[in-house]
Amino acid sequence: AAKERAPGSIAVFDATMQRRAASRLQLEGELRRSLEVGGFRLVYQPIVDSATGRPVGVEALARWTSPTRGVVSPQEFIAVAEDCGLIVELGRWVLREAVTTFAGWCAGQPETPYLTVNVSGRQLLHPGFVDDVLAVLGEAGLPPAQLGLEITESVLLQEPTRARQMLGALREAGVATLLDDFGTGYSSLSWLRQLPADALKIDRSFVQGLPGDAADASVVSAVVALGRSLGLTVIAEGVEDAAQLEALVQMGCPRVQGYLFARPVPGDEARATLFGR
Ligand code: C2E
Ligand code: MG
Ligand code: MG
Ligand code: MG
């Protein structure tokens, strides 16, 4: 695009880029400092049984307030953390915080809900990730079967062999893999068959169009059928109203998550939702 501009406008373009780079660097610095001083927190969104309306688990989601910009969306700060490599350390904090907190809620309870944590590609492929996860579970005393890791398809496409090894090793220990934002990537069916996955999370963009949009409805019911035939749980993300829920129930989608049931909430509230106290 710079080529198409009048001569002289290059300098303006440069200044914009420079400003953007400086702002990015400042953001990185703030993220780094926040990690040191405990400036991140977690919220939890219930995952619900579509037939009974009962929560069966929660997804942990990171929250961050910048000292200079206020609340920054995870989409933005996770992307920056991924780019600068900070995601490994941030992800480790998320995992430890979520697992420790959740294990505390579950202690002495007869129910065994599960916890899911989002994991970035760089974090998954980092040497020591598998040991880290198992160590955190051991220290917290949470059975591995109560933990699931949410991974996007793109992660698996970048380094399919290593990603499969890591997830396979964790799965042998009992930790589940959930494919997040499912449908937005490029999974082929043959490839999906080889994956060590336990659940598919249908991306919100497909759920949004229910029940009216025929194309969205076909995608969702195809994913539900696929999950059933491969023996995978299917979770619909971003369910916001009763008509969407009804369509999902009719399609036989076993799990749902979204604002209709609950927004992501602080730990105390999530615990009360799961255990009724
Ligand atoms: P995700 O894992 O697909 O999480 C679902 C997102 O949809 C969350 O946004 C959630 O708040 C939002 N959501 C849930 N129900 C509804 C609904 O009914 N309607 C609408 N409009 N939105 C809904 P959030 O918390 O802003 O997170 C965005 C993304 O950031 C996540 O997408 C995930 O990819 C990433 N992320 C968040 N926390 C972490 C983390 O600790 N580690 C990593 N690696 N990524 C994270
Ligand atoms: Mg997720
Ligand atoms: Mg998602
Ligand atoms: Mg997402």
TrEMBL record:
Q: Which domain of life is it from?
A: Bacteria
- EAL domain location, by residue? 24-277
Provide the transmembrane region boundaries.
none
What protein name applies here?
Diguanylate cyclase (GGDEF)-like protein
Give the fragment's position in the full-length protein.
Answer: 470 to 746 of 746
